[in-house]
Amino acid sequence: MSKARTLANLMSDNAELADGQISVAEVVGAAPLASPTFTGTATGAAFSGPLTGNVTGNVTGNITGDITGKLTGSEINVSAISTTISDTAVDVFVYDTSKDSDGGAWRHKTQHTSWYNETLSTSTRGSRKEFPAVAVIVAEVAKVTIYDGDDPDMPMWMVFNQPTDSTVNFMASSGKTVSVIRMLNGNLCIGFSDGGWGVSQISFISDSQRWLWSGSIYYQLTNSVSERNSYSNYAQLESFGILGGLISDIAMTVLPNTLTNYATELPVPVLLVTTESAASIVRYNSDGSISGACGNGTRCVADLLSKEDDNKEIILWTSSGPLRSKILEDNLVETEIGIPKTNWHEIPLSKDLDTKNLGLKIVNKNNITHIGGTSINVGNPHVIFFVDNIEDYDLEKIGPEIENHKYFPEKCNVTLAKIINKNLIKVKVWERGAGLTKACGTAACATAIAGNINKLTDKKTDIEFSLGKLSITIDENNSVHMRGPVSDIKNIEIKI
Fold first, then answer.
1. Which of 66, 76, 104, 487 has minimal Cβ neighbours within 10 Å of its Cβ?
2. Beta strands in 151-244 (DSSP E)
3. Sheet with 156-161, side-by-side order of all strands
């Protein structure tokens, strides 16, 4: 089983939602495999024989035999593209939009997009405007083709071609090798196995593309989907990258009770990417922006990876760089967040201010004004207000006001904190791009640091949320360590 998809399964309450689809890949055997039932992912060598029965989900690997039956409930004539699959494909993904969070309803809300209105019946565009309910997506080394699985003849619906020169488009530049494709909630992800190109993420809903590059680069291309095969300019949106640019696998999952993307009106996905170096986690806020770092998410993924590799020390890449985690006893994971940034230009602030006290005004429910705010960056920009009673304040009102204050060009997370004693702080948190949250690992770290530099707490402090506590320690090098529990949501068993 692929590492990325294993992680997605374990992180999700719903096995089908974890991958976007149930996956069937590279089944070993030379003899006929009659009427199988697949409930998970199977990997191995190439299948070479007749495959009959009902297959629901993702078909990958080298397919050289006959395939009959039903794919995702639709009669699909696989023979129509059998040459492409068997001879040149590097990955094949059956995308059933009924498995999306909205059951595929987004397909009927895209009439405004460039691709819906582009010229039909060309070499790179089929004769149908609407995105297929079932799409068979075939990746070749320098090409990705979406086939219309709603049609028994499975005609080409859309083609992404790599440029033949050094220019850049949705498929990188000349000579770059596609390694993996996945799709969920209208987002097509294409991974590359060379050149440090990372992941191309194409949104059919917002009609746009962005790059998750290796290193510390997150780009937005200026082209729309209809211009996918043309040269595109690009702009850096945020400092974000993935650990290594050679992509081996991608999983997309929607976690239980996740937030909704304002732009797409669909739940925000999490991307799990395995590379030649390690694994990276990409977490999106509800406004579609990327979360710079997710402390609790990092601890959870580290725990999952440790169970796969029997490794007690895990490194994950976020926008703030590599985060090192240690797997402890009693389901505890400790993650080193690193040295906090306290200079105004590092947070960043819009001008030179006293970061210990920004002089920001917040008003409680009794119309009493509090002036303060300590600003710190621990992967994300934070501002912490130490108040007498966190329940006296309406954080749903204060949060967005401070988040979008002119002092914060990249917005900020907002925390209300009450000092209980030198080793305990109670908090409520408003996260940028997300809103009120029940827990936030980086906010816990920022609050502990703010308490210490204001001489309110010791270097080891528990941060108490409504759902539990995190233990924060500031070591002798001023690096911050976060410790807390993890637990599995669900374990998925595979039966073949």
1. 487
2. 156-161, 178-184, 187-192, 199-203, 208-212, 218-221, 234-238
3. 91-96, 134-140, 143-148, 156-161
102 versus 297: the higher-pLDDT residue is 102
266 has a pLDDT exceeding 70: yes
Q: Are strands 187-192 and 178-184 parallel, antiparallel or unpaired?
A: antiparallel
The catalytic site residues sit at 294, 440
Residue 220 burial (CB < 10 Å; 0-12/13-18/19+)?
middle
Q: Which residues on adjacent β-strands are paired with residue 209?
A: 202
Average pLDDT of every residue of the chain = 76
Does pLDDT of 401 surpass 70? yes
CA 81 from centroid of its chain's CA atoms: 31
- Identify residue 70 by its one-letter amino acid code: K
Mode of pairing for the β-strands spanning 91-96 and 134-140: antiparallel
What is the per-residue pLDDT for 78?
A: 62
> 50: cis peptide before it, omega within 30°?
no
Q: Please check the confidence at residue 118 and state whether its pLDDT lies above 90.
A: yes
Instruction: Judge whether 93 and 179 are in contact, CB under 8 Å.
Output: no
pLDDT digits (tens, 9 = 90+) for 22-40: 232 322 232 333 334 444 4
What pLDDT score does 295 carry?
Answer: 57
Q: How far apart are CA 435 and CA 196, in angstroms?
A: 34
Q: Which range has the worst mean pLDDT, 65-74, 191-200, 337-346?
A: 65-74
Q: Are 363 and 369 in contact (CB under 8 A)?
A: yes
User: How many helices (H) and strands (E) would you count in the chain?
Assistant: 6, 30
Confidence of residue 6 (pLDDT cuts 50, 70, 90): very low
At 432-454, the pLDDT tens digits run 877 888 778 889 999 999 999 99
E strands, 91-173, in order: 91-96, 134-140, 143-148, 156-161
Q: Tell the burial category of 112 from Cβ atoms under 10 Å away from its Cβ (0-12, 13-18, 19+).
A: exposed
Residues 34, 39, 41, 42: what is their CA dihedral angle, to the nearest 10 degrees? -30
The number of beta carbons lying within 10 Å of the beta carbon of residue 276 is 13
| DSSP code for 397 | H
Domains in the chain, start-ordered, CATH in brackets?
A: 3-292 (no CATH), 360-485 (3.10.310.10)
Supply the pLDDT for residue 293: 54
The torsion angles phi and psi of 151, rounded to 5 degrees, stand at -95, 125
Among 181, 184, 173, 185, residue whose Cα is nearest residue 199: 181
